[in-house]
Design brief:
It is built from eleven helices and nine strands. By secondary structure, the chain is an alpha/beta fold. Strands 3-2-1-4-5-6 form a six-stranded parallel beta sheet, with helices on both faces. A three-stranded mixed beta sheet has the order 7-8-9. Helix 2 links the parallel strand 2 and strand 3. Helix 10 runs antiparallel to helix 11.
Length: 286
Amino acid sequence: MTEPTLGYIGLGNQGAPMAKRLVDWPGGLIVFDMRAEAMTPLAEAGATLADSVTDVAAADVISVTVLTDAQVRAVVAELADHVRPGTVIAIHSTIEPDTAPELADKLRDKGIRIVDAPVSGGAAAAANGELAVMVGADDASYEIVKPVFKRWASMVVRAGEPGAGTRMKVARNMLTFVGFAAAFEAQRLADAAGIDLQKLGRVVRHSDAQSGGPGAIMVRDDLGPLPSDHWLFDMFTHTRGLADKDLRLALTMGDAVGVELPMAQIALRDMAAGLGLPQMNSTAQE
């Protein structure tokens, strides 16, 4: 069976290391970026350079990693006028949740397959082939892109139909930035209490590497109440107790040093329910 020819459009900080891991693909790789200097390293590694987006339309599987939703739409529209039926266009940019399914519906009659496949992990993970990719695709398209994505991803997850990859990425990124906001709040508390912020950061990074951080509690199939015979019940009950005690200590310390801790208050309010358990002061039987 002949291997598909690959195309890659957008060779920025994320796209360049992803494309570099495809240069020895048996079917060949065609690349394009508006900046000639971005394409030069790929050419030196063995990729074929395109003069325009249109030239990349000769490929069978085309990855798109550009900056904005509008740029994605423009690139896909240009490709759609030139690609062959059966071509897969994989969008790695983080776009609006409705864009991929809209494009998939629009181009289905032309036989063009749209896949949304945003990634997580950053440029370093891309260079090492260790990205996570969240794929929104129909069954046939997923089977086509999976071996390609495995060149630069160590985790390939099919989230569902087109659009599902983006929805998963939005939820994942929300956790990152809410976590950053919580870190800012923790730093304000520590700074006001006379704690060295560099040392605090070292401790947090070390302990998160051991405990798994927020991902450690993301192991349930649903968000309903946790039955007492569930395998997580004892563990989460213990977690709820620790959270209740430690968050109350943080809020008490915040009052003492004059630092408002709104995220800690929300965590105290919502922690038990998030774990699927009643509040500590509940009279419900466990």
